[in-house]
Structures are given as structure tokens and as C-alpha cells.
């Protein structure tokens, strides 16, 4: 075992996980935080044959979306089954009943007893992964009501979300060691990402998970893992891949009274942005611009305030130049036409240079084979961190050049706040370390400024943001 991994085990104890185990059993179909939770539980409960027991558990209880008719057949035939899935609960205000959304059976109004919802409050906020026991009632079906009821729910999540364990563990590592710890924590092999710039580019994907109301874009070639972190690290995100996006799903469903994804998630990721379509583009883009600026939006009589971060991801053509790749495609034309608006682009806080990251090929090379922090705990830490911003603290250490606009200042400080929470959770850093992170964050915002100049050269001048570290 390397010295780094030994230090991770010593610093984090029960919250240190051997990431290699996730590659050794058939759990790759599950989100990373779910897989790690199950691996930890089964290895403690069945130390001699946990892999066999876990494989059997997943085989018996986890089903793909394409198998939903078979799952419904089992439910009707047996009367009761238990499945691994994400359960999200909403309240039917007309009846006062709690209803559940269960993706693997394609149902969005199964009955959920009030006590199960109250015992697991996050079911009514973001939804939770767990073992869902469903019961089928032929009598209820004959009465014309939904015959499916959730009779038990066992959540898969960390026993604590206390960020102090994370903060205290940070002190045992240098800055560069900590970058490697985080890279292994999110499931990658740190040795593949040579140089601090690549590591910061990879880890900058965590900023929207740690900081509220951050808007970022990432452009890069295919197979660089652009959605991997959002899909595997946090249970508080929603990834929408291309296709039709409605105001009801994104903002608020006026028919059901159910809040949209932006209202309840830590981050909403619009993947393959070039393929996104809107039924009424003017309404969605206008609401997006309003929300990205203020953190609030209205739909019908509903007014919603949210801390949800918005992430736009697009594939871009690249060309190899010397030791790196550069994009050779205009970002503007990666966006759908309704979004090619300088007012919307100016609300993007920064652009992650996904084109600088290597493509993920073989798991034996690119995925972690050592110890990192348990993802279910790490996910909760990121979620907790969002409750407090470090913008005021950052203002004591940073001064931007006179050409910075209010949006530039807000963007840089908000991005930096999210990054510092992850990289320096104990708020212990020297000026050299702060400068390195600030240079990266300012470059993220500078890419937005350069893009705006290309779109509207008369309105947005071609100049460069500069900064000074104070003290």
C-alpha cells in the first residue's frame, strides 16, 4: 500500500474506503455512492464471503429500467417484492396522501405510508436510494386506485454528515497530496492526471456540489467523464441528457403541484446540451436567465427560491497541439439556438476546460485502485457545505482588477468559495496555494469573457481579468 493510501486510512478511519473493491464486484450499474455503501455494509456483515453475498443481493433486487414490465409481473405474481431503486415522495394536496415515484416500475403515484415519509424526510426533498419493499393489492386495483404500496424502506446512506471529520482529516496532507486524495475519492486514478492544472480541472466539477447557485459550463471531447462525478458522487443531483425539457420538469408542475428539479436539487446537469429541446423556448430561457441571476423564479402563482447550481455540458471537437488538446469548434454553436444569447452566457460563472483532460479508456488504468473517502459520506459533506458561503472570507484575501464587472466579481468569488471548501475545508492555506487556485478560477471566468467578446465585441471589450492576493 502506498504512503498516501496509508495516510488516508489513518486520517479517516471507518470513512476510508478501498475504491478498488468497487471494481472487483458487479456494482458498476449502481451510482458510486450506493455501491460503496453496500460494499462497506456487506464486508462488515459477511467478512468471509461478502462479495458473493453482495452479488446475490444485487442480482435479486436490482433491475434495469428496461425490465420494468418484468418487475411489475413479479409484483403482481408474488404480491410483495423488494427492489433497489431511488424513491421520491410527493404529497397529493387534494387528498393529503403521500405518493411515491419509483423509476424501475415506471410508476409515479404509488402509496407511501406517512410514517415512512416522516422517518426519511429526504424522500420528500431530493429522493433517496435504498431497498424499497412494495406490496400489490388486487382489491385496490379493482377499486380503480393505484394498487401498489411501499411497506418498507431501508436507506443507503452514511450514518453522519458531520463535515468536521473531513475538515480534521485535511491537516494530514499537503496541498498536492490532498488533490490526489480527492481524485481517488471520486473514483479516479490520480496518477493519470499529471500536473496540478489537470487535477484542478477535474476537481472543479465538484464546485457546483459544494457551493449554492453556481452556474458552470464544461466543454470537452467524448469519454472524458464529464458526467461521471455528478452521477456517482452525489445523490442530490439530477442529470438530464438531451431531449425535451419542459417548464414543469425543470421549474414547477402546475397540474400536480410538484416542484421541478431546480427547486429540490443541489445541481441540475443539462448534458449533451446541443441536443436539448424546449417546447416553449422563450419561457424556459427567460426563467433560466432570471434564476441564474437571482436564485429565484416564478411559474404561475408559485414563487421559488433555490440554491440549485446549473451545469451545462457539451461535446466539442478538439485538435492536438504539442502536449495538449485545444477546442476547434465555436462554443456558441454547441448550444441550442434559444440559448445563444449573450445575456444568458454572461450569467455563466465559469467554463471548465474539459478538453485538457485525458479520455477514460480502461478501468484498470483510469479508475482508482486505492483508498479514498467514502462517497456516501463525502456526498453528505458537500451537501452540508452548501449551507454557508465563504465569499465574505474570500473578499479579505482577494482584490480583482478595476475592469472586473459586478458579474465577474460575483462569479470569481462564488467559484472560489466552492473550491476552497473542497480544497481547504479547514481554511488553512498560504498565499502561494491561494494564488494557484485563484489563477485557475479567474481563467474559468476569463473564458466566459472571451466568448462574450466574440459574440458582441462592441459591448464586451477584449481585456483580461487580473487579481491581487492581499496580506
Topology summary:
Blueprint: H1 3-12, E1 16-18, H2 20-24, H3 32-45, H4 50-61, H5 68-78, E2 80-92, E3 97-102, E4 107-111, H6 114-119, E5 128-136, H7 138-142, E6 148-155, H8 164-170, H9 175-185, H10 196-203, H11 207-210, E7 215-220, H12 228-232, E8 237-244, H13 247-250, E9 252-253, E10 258-259, H14 261-264, E11 267-277, H15 281-294, E12 296-299, E13 302-305, E14 309-315, E15 318-321, E16 324-327, H16 342-345, E17 350-353, H17 363-366, E18 371-373, H18 375-385, H19 391-395, E19 398-400, H20 406-423, H21 431-455, E20 467-469
Parallel strand pairs: 7-14, 7-17, 8-11, 11-14
Antiparallel strand pairs: 1-18, 2-3, 2-5, 3-4, 5-6, 9-10, 12-13, 15-16, 19-20
Helix pairs in contact: 3-4, 3-18, 9-10, 20-21
Would you tell me the structural class of the helices and strands? alpha+beta
Structure summary, number of beta strands: 20
Radius of gyration: 23 Å
Adjacency order of strands in the biggest sheet? 4-3-2-5-6
Characterize the biggest β-sheet. 5 strands, antiparallel
* Residue fraction in strands: 15-25%
Which stretches are low in confidence, meaning pLDDT under 50 for 5 or more residues running? none
What value does the average pLDDT take? 92
Assembly state (oligomeric):
single chain
Shape type = globular
The number of helical segments is 21
Distance between the termini: 40 Å
The percent range for helix content is 25-40%
